[in-house]
Design goal:
single chain; Undecaprenyl pyrophosphate synthetase; 6 strands; globular; binds 3-methylbut-3-enyl trihydrogen diphosphate; binds magnesium ion
Length: about 270
C-alpha cells in the first residue's frame, strides 16, 4: 500500500483526477516509463467536421489536448515528448488552413511559455524551421532561448518535419563533410548518421502514439522509430486527454520489448 502510494506520488498525480484516472495511475510503474514519447496529433479536422464546425476550430481544440498532455508528461517525469504538429506534406492544404496552424502555434507559444518555463520544460524543434513564416520562427526562437537551461521535460515540436527530408538533409551534409575530408566514409555507422539528424543527442522514441484511427507513420521519425512501440487509438486528437495517455503508458508497460533478441524476464 505504501509502495503504491509512493509510486503514485512520484508520478505527479494531482488531486482532482477521476476514479478512472486514479486507477490508471495505480497501475503505472514509475520505474518503467518511456524516456521518449512521440505523438502524431491527428484528427482535428474530422473532430470539427463531425460537429459541423470549420476545420480551424478542430485545430484550436487540439491545442487544449496538447496543453494537457505536455503538463501530464512533465509531471510524470517523462524525458522527451515529440509532437508532430506540421509535416512537410501539410503545405498541400489550403493556404488559410496552413495560416491558421501557424497562427495557433504562435498563440500557443505566447500563452504557454511562462507556464512551460515554470514547469522546467525545454522547448526544441525538429524540421525545416527556416521555411516557416517569420512570426512562427521568431516565437520559436524566443521560446527556445527562454527555456534552453531547463532540465525537465524536453518538448520537441516537429514543424515542417518529414522523416525522408530529414534523412536526405543528413545524407547531403555527410556527403559535404566527407568531400571536405572531415569524415572518412568508412567510419560512417548508425551513430554517426543519428548525429546528423534533427534529433541528434536525443534518445529514440520508445512509444509512438497515433490517435484518430489512422494506423500509419506519415513520414514521422522514420529512422528513430525503428524499435518504437506503437499505440493507436480511435479517439480524435481534440478529445485526447490524460486518461488516454495513461492508458497508452499502461499498455506500453505490459509489452515485451525484444529488439530482435529474446525476452529476458527480470530475476
Ligand atoms: C492533425 O489533424 C493536424 C495536422 C495535420 C496539422 P488533421 O488536420 O490532419 O485532421 P484530420 O486528419 O483531417 O481529421
Ligand atoms: C500527420 O497527419 C501529420 C501531423 C499530424 C502533423 P496527416 O493528417 O497530415 O497525415 P495523413 O495525411 O493522414 O497521412
Ligand atoms: Mg490528419
Amino acid at each position: 500500500m505504501v509502495r503504491e502510494w509512493l509510486s503514485v506520488l512520484r508520478l505527479g498525480k494531482t488531486k482532482n483526477d477521476s476514479p478512472e484516472v486514479d486507477d490508471l495511475y495505480k497501475s503505472l510503474d514509475a520505474d518503467k516509463l518511456p524516456v521518449h514519447i512521440a505523438i502524431i496529433m491527428d484528427g482535428n479536422g474530422r473532430w470539427a467536421t463531425r460537429r459541423g464546425l470549420p476545420r480551424a476550430l478542430g485545430h484550436r481544440a487540439g491545442v487544449e489536448s496538447l496543453r494537457e498532455i505536455v503538463k501530464t508528461c512533465s509531471s510524470l517525469g517523462v524525458g522527451f515528448l515529440t509532437v508532430y504538429a506540421f509535416s512537410t506534406e501539410n503545405w498541400k492544404r489550403p493556404a488559410d488552413e496552413v495560416s491558421t496552424l501557424m497562427d495557433l502555434l504562435v498563440e500557443y507559444l505566447h500563452k504557454e511559455l511562462q507556464e512551460l518555463h515554470q514547469n522546467n520544460v525545454m522547448i526544441k524543434t525538429i524540421g525545416r524551421i527556416d521555411e516557416l513564416p517569420s512570426k512562427a520562427r521568431e516565437a520559436l526562437k524566443m521560446a527556445a532561448e527562454e527555456t534552453f537551461r531547463n532540465t525537465g521535460l524536453t518538448l520537441n515540436l516537429a514543424l515542417n518535419y518529414g522523416g525522408r527530408n530529414e534523412i536526405t538533409e543528413a545524407v547531403k551534409q555527410i556527403g559535404r563533410d566527407a568531400a571536405a575530408g572531415k569524415l572518412n566514409p568508412d567510419d560512417i555507422d548508425e551513430n554517426i548518421i543519428s548525429g546528423y539528424l534533427y534529433t541528434a543527442g536525443m534518445p529514440d522514441p520508445d512509444l509512438v502514439i497515433r490517435p484518430s484511427g489512422e494506423q500509419r507513420i506519415s513520414n514521422f521519425l522514420l529512422w528513430q522509430a525503428a524499435y518504437a512501440e506503437f499505440w493507436y487509438s480511435p479517439v480524435l486528437w481534440p478529445d485526447f486527454r490524460k486518461r488516454h495517455l495513461l492508458e497508452a503508458l499502461v499498455d506500453y508497460q505490459n509489452r515485451q520489448r525484444r529488439f530482435g533478441g529474446l525476452y529476458q524476464s527480470k530475476k
